[in-house]
Amino acid sequence: MISESGDLLLRRRQRKQYRFRPAALVLVSFAAILFQVYVPRFVEQLSYLELPLLVTVYFSLMRREPVAGVLIGSSIGLVQDSLSHNPLGMFGIVKTLVGYFAASVSQRFDVENMTIRFLLGFFFFFFHQFFYWVLASTLLGQQVGFDALQTLFFGLLNAAVAVPLFRVLDRL
Asked: Model's pTM, two decimal places?
């Protein structure tokens, strides 16, 4: 019994923990934010795509450290807030939560599996939208609509984009 739990701990420690070049992390994150801010102005059909969220999820999953996930999520969220029309801090708070929970989940599951990546992309999109709605309605008192069916549909679309995006980011 003791040797089984010791073996399990050893296998967990031996899991791949990716180290990214800081330039790659910054450039990919900034490109995703610029995509989110500017592309929907020209191609309205892509407004559902939440690339900064997917990049946050990917980097947090691959780092497998909750503290790193928090830093990645808060950085991406605050930069996205500064370039958008939203109040400063809304995306920062929500993406911080996403980064933390994504890094925590990666310690428990094999996040290199494509099915798991699809499910996590879907879950974290729904999580992101729900917590953004909660924060906007409670902290700011805004009447922001939350259509669960539409959010589920857009979550599936984002998850479908997440799988090939994560595969491309794996090659970095």
From this structure: 0.87
